[in-house]
Specification:
The model has no long low-confidence stretch (mean pLDDT 91). α1 crosses α2. The protein is α+β, with helices and mostly antiparallel strands. The strands form 3 sheets. Strands 7, 8, 9, 10, 11, 12, 13, 14, 15 and 16 form a 10-stranded mixed beta sheet that branches. Strands 1-6-3-4 form a 4-stranded antiparallel beta sheet. Strands 2-5 form a two-stranded antiparallel ribbon. A hairpin with a 3-residue loop joins β13 and β14. The radius of gyration is 20 Å and the shape is globular. The protein folds into 3 domains: 63 residues, RNA-binding S4 domain (Structural Genomics Hypothetical 15.5 Kd Protein In mrcA-pckA Intergenic Region, Chain A), CATH 3.10.290.10; 89 residues, Pseudouridine synthase (2-Layer Sandwich), CATH 3.30.2350.10; 101 residues, Pseudouridine synthase (2-Layer Sandwich). It is 19% helix and 33% strand.
């Protein structure tokens, strides 16, 4: 029997095409290209019916994905730091500048294909990511090594049962803490933020280190939410507009902590890494100029 994943649309604030939605509903798809391919192959149904990429969805719709669609990995010889690994999952520290997955060569999934199959009976042919980070974002990415782990971890992310924390350097001085509830691409979205440090800057007036906790996981959610309250993430040329930011040094956003239930043992586990050193070098340098 083919594997099946089911998703129920809970709430939308505006009409949304199914091809733009299912990449987040089913993380193993990884990209809009993969979503279109799954639809074209007939692996996606909407309320039991065949769908087309332009079809729109509404609250309470039932979307089903059949089959993993896991393709053979492309060759990408690249070393990635492994934070944790067992027979069921692998957690890595993704460098900035490479994608997690998708229809390209330079991805985390392709770089990890060489580690070999799990010893578990339901081993996948290669590790499959259960969530994504933006290409310019550095930090923790979790991949499943078995079918059961893939199903359970994907479900945990979909149901917001995974606690994620990020650090970012932003322009200006945000409040000490706050909650941002603003839809992203028509979907309810929520981010909690906490101010950790602020320094004066001769060029940018002030820069601040913030800790970010996304409750939902929308595309570019943290970047959109922070710029939406007037605090652009440093180096974010996509959303800078008229804001003078630092270009050529990358995006100052990193995924640094993840807490979830192990997909097999059901034990609560938590892993963390330090924010990138360049975050502190930037703040120290700006502060030293005064």
């Amino acid at each position: 029997m083919k594997d099946k994943w089911e998703h129920r649309v809970i709430k939308l604030t505006e009409p949304t095409r199914i091809v733009d939605y299912i990449g987040e509903a089913f993380h193993m798809l990884g990209s809009r290209t993969a979503a279109r391919k799954a639809i074209a192959e007939g692996r996606i149904t909407l309320n039991g019916n065949k769908v087309y990429p332009s079809d729109t969805i509404k609250e309470n719709d039932r979307i089903v994905l059949t089959g993993t669609g896991i393709s053979k990995a492309k060759k990408f010889d690249f070393d990635i730091e492994v934070v944790f690994e067992d027979d069921y999952m692998i957690l890595v520290n993704k460098p900035a500048g490479i994608a997690v997955n998708g229809d390209r060569n330079k991805t985390v999934e392709n770089a990890l294909a060489r580690i070999g199959r799990s010893n578990a009976e339901d081993a996948l042919p290669r590790p499959v990511a259960v969530h994504r980070l933006d290409v310019p974002t550095k930090g923790l990415v979790l991949l499943a090594k078995t079918k059961k782990a893939l199903i359970r971890l994907s479900s945990a992310f979909e149901n917001n049962e995974v606690d994620k924390q990020y650090y970012a350097v932003v322009h200006g001085i945000p409040p000490e803490n706050g909650v941002i509830k603003k839809p992203v691409e028509g979907k309810p979205s929520e981010t909690h933020f906490f101010l950790e440090r602020t320094v004066k800057s001769r060029v940018f007036e002030h820069l601040s280190l913030v800790r970010l906790k996304p409750i939902t996981g929308r595309t570019h959610q943290l970047r959109k939410h922070m710029v939406g309250i007037g605090h652009l993430v440093v180096g974010d040329k996509l959303y800078a507009k008229e804001v003078n930011t630092i270009l050529g040094k990358g995006l100052f956003l990193g995924a640094c902590k993840i807490t979830f239930r192990h997909p097999i043992t059901d034990k609560n586990v938590s892993y963390s890494i330090n924010p990138p050193n360049r975050f502190f070098r930037l703040l120290d340098r700006e502060e030293s100029r005064f």
